[in-house]
Amino acid sequence: MPANLTFDALKVAVGDGTIDTVLTCIVDMQGRLMGKRFHAQHFIDSGYDETHCCNYLVATDIEMVTVQGYKATSWAAGYGDYVIKPDLATLRLVPWLPGTAMVMCDLLDHHTHDLVPHAPRSILKRQIARAEAMGFTPYMATELEFFVFQDSFDALFDRGYRGLQTLGRQNADYAIFATSKEEAIMRAIRNGLYGAGIPIENSKGEAEAGQEEINVRYSDALDTADMHSIVKNGIKEIAHAAGHAVTFMAKYDHARAGSSSHVHQSLWSGGKNAFHDPDAEHGMSALMRSYIAGQLAHARDLTLCLAPYVNSYKRFVVGMFAPTKAVWSLDNRTAGFRVCGENTRGVRVECRIGGADLNPYLAMAALLAAGLDGIEKQMELEPAISGDIYQGGALREVPKTLGEAAALMQGSEMLRAAFGPDVVDHYHRAALWEIEEQNRVVTDWEVARGFERA
After folding, report:
1. Of 78, 245, 364, 368, which one is least surrounded by beta carbons within 10 A?
2. Which parts pass through the membrane (predicted)?
3. 286-297 and 360-376 helices, crossing angle to 10°
């Protein structure tokens, strides 16, 4: 999906006063947009070529703490600069912000101008290039779930995120009347994102009170990752403007269903879906079977890229539609990997392990790396599992904790070869920091459980 604003069109819009601000956006380790707000005239004069940022932007935690222990950056190394390089093919309007355009950017080394290897966009670009060298274009889509709350971000922050009341009061899964109650904000989200060049297909009520899902049209992997990050940021900004808060936490309440980000995938060649073979069983080509086999072989190793926080693992609960087994099936929502569109030209694999808190660049890169490894090694696909996979017995498990997933990623020869050892070590350090912080902080649960009874 090409962006909806060319550089020449931007010059015209700046000249006539329609646009006065350009956001230059990189993606941090958490998948969030970071960057600068340029005066539009300065952007078209020189900012379009490059700008700069501190290199801690891909070495901080979710609270912007400058975590120590990274090889790439530290107090000892002085926290130098990276180059922010706008990708002008991604220029687009931001309809919900007056007079504003935005552009996605890559991070480059300040001295060599090479891509920073551990920057999320760089990691995905490397795997896309690997697929293209094999003759394939990866296509993907994400289904993004989130909760909408009655009150604003500021109001909830000020009261410590207590007394959370979702905008919807009851399960509105696919329900038209119930979602009509939330339509003011959801209509603004759909139309705003569409106006930003995001090909929104639809939104729907999800399987929990106040929960929504938004779907964007299938596209090439880098475009999908960019759109995913823009969608999350846009939903937050549009909700904030309307006086509401949203959350993309994987599990904001242990009594509620979690929020996922399922990733649909296929490889294309010559304008056709290379996963489709009309003469093969289920319409699945040998290529597709090896791709899925690779993902299954490495599913546990790559889970950290799909579930990056302590909270992420609280979503994997039996009976709440989040998978607990890393196996494949045909159109079965209890499996970690589901084949959709069997016997059609749209046949694809859906990874259901990731939560809405994932970084799309890391998730897609890891899934692609595993699938390509399966193709390169011509892995044989194990039999599909059917029925209630939650009760499937001794099957390959999704890791149960962040610590388990971090250790598996750190020891993964496949990921170390695909991403580079320094990149794996970088994100392993991020996971260890999350665990250190969990172990340090006294939680509300601990106080309620032990205050009187300990």
Report:
1. 78
2. none
3. 120
Residues 81, 150 within the same domain: no
Query: Is 329 inside any structural domain?
Result: yes
Of the candidates 267, 451, 303, 449, which has an alpha carbon nearest to the alpha carbon of residue 376?
A: 267
**CB-neighbour burial class of residue 196 (10 A; exposed 0-12, middle 13-18, buried 19+):** buried
Give the Cα separation of 297 and 119 in Å (integer).
Answer: 26
Using the CB atoms, write b or e for 70-106: b if 16+ within 10 Å: bebbbeeeeeeebbbbbebebbbbbbbbeebbbbbbb
Tell me which residue range forms the domain holding 107.
Answer: 7-116
129-186 pLDDT, tens digit each: 999 999 999 999 999 999 999 999 999 999 999 999 999 887 777 777 878 888 999 9
pLDDT tens for 191-216 read 999 999 999 999 998 888 899 999 99
Q: Please give the tally of structural domains in the chain.
A: 2
**CATH number of 183's domain:** 3.30.590.10
Task: Tell me how far apart the alpha carbons of residues 414 and 370 are, in angstroms, rounded to a whole number.
Answer: 7
In angstroms, the CA 311 to CA 320 distance is 16
Same domain, 247 and 321: yes
Q: Which residues of 39-64 are buried (b: 16+ CB within 10 A; e: fewer)?
A: ebeebbeebbeebebebbbbbbbbee
Tokens found for residue 369: 């790396």
- Let me know: does 62 contact 56? Beta carbons within 8 Å: no
Q: Treating both helix axes as pointing N-terminal to C-terminal, what angle do 221-241 and 183-195 enclose, rounded to 10 degrees?
A: 140
pTM exceeds 0.90, yes or no: yes
- Alpha-helical (H) ranges within 263-311 are 286-297, 299-302
Burial class (CB in 10 A: 0-12, 13-18, 19+), 27: buried
